[in-house]
Amino acid sequence: MQTEAIKRMENPSSKERFAHLTPEEKADLLEEYLAEELNEAAKSTAGPRPMPTTADIESAIEGRTFRRGVGTLFVAPEGNEVKHLPPIPQGHRLEDFFHSRFMGAAKHCLQSANLAMKKGASEEVILACLLHDTVQCLMRVDHGWWAAQIYEPYVSEKVAFAIRYHQALRFYPDEEAGYRYPTLYHVLFGEDYKPEPYIEATYKMVRDHKWYGDARLVTANDLYSFEPNVNPQLEQFADIIGRHFKQPKEGLGYDGSPVAHMWRSIEMPDRCL
Ligand SMILES: [Fe+2]
Ligand SMILES: [Fe+2]
What we know:
Blueprint: H1 4-10, H2 12-20, H3 23-43, H4 54-59, H5 94-100, H6 104-118, H7 123-131, H8 143-151, H9 157-169, H10 183-189, H11 197-207, H12 212-220, H13 238-244, H14 260-267
One fe (ii) ion binds next to helix 9.
């Protein structure tokens, strides 16, 4: 018998919806799925159902109306409609983007930074956790690199490093640092997925870098580390943002920086050209 979570995970039409879910929703759904798998496995001698393979993931590309790497601002979070976005106030501060543009990643990043803070991480690591997935509103493909690029003019080199490389490190466990390969990645990438050579080469470079520990801490405070019902607010990090984020006086998107257009794209995702 298929229970509800298993049906939702394995139903072909729900695969598309799964790609849109926020990290928290994916984690919740996966947790539910795995719990039900265990129950089902306990009742049957056939063992747990297999995770998707890379071939399954590949075969689900055609039939979608979007690409999985698209930014979350550009697709409907639920149903078939996107909604009007509130204007970004004059000043175009980081906080404004958190409140109305970063979508589901905002909550995920707040939880991650909150966990890092509780564990006594450095302010730079806490800031890296706070920012690490926010660019997914603009682009999900290679989001570590995109995120580091969009923040590079405004944060220290170390913070940008930690943000950029958390993406590659997520594919490589480090039990000593408290990081295990996420089961969710078996669902998203396929259980037989092997990171591409550029990811492998990046991992090897970062593993030997003096800031490896900082990038690794972003992954160690990432998904699956959350306490239920914890709802941190951005105000909690105001001092850290004030000390470590160089808010441009012209506003994000209007300071003539090489990434200003990226901030404007987040501000105005409904512009057709
Ligand atoms: Fe990430
Ligand atoms: Fe994350």
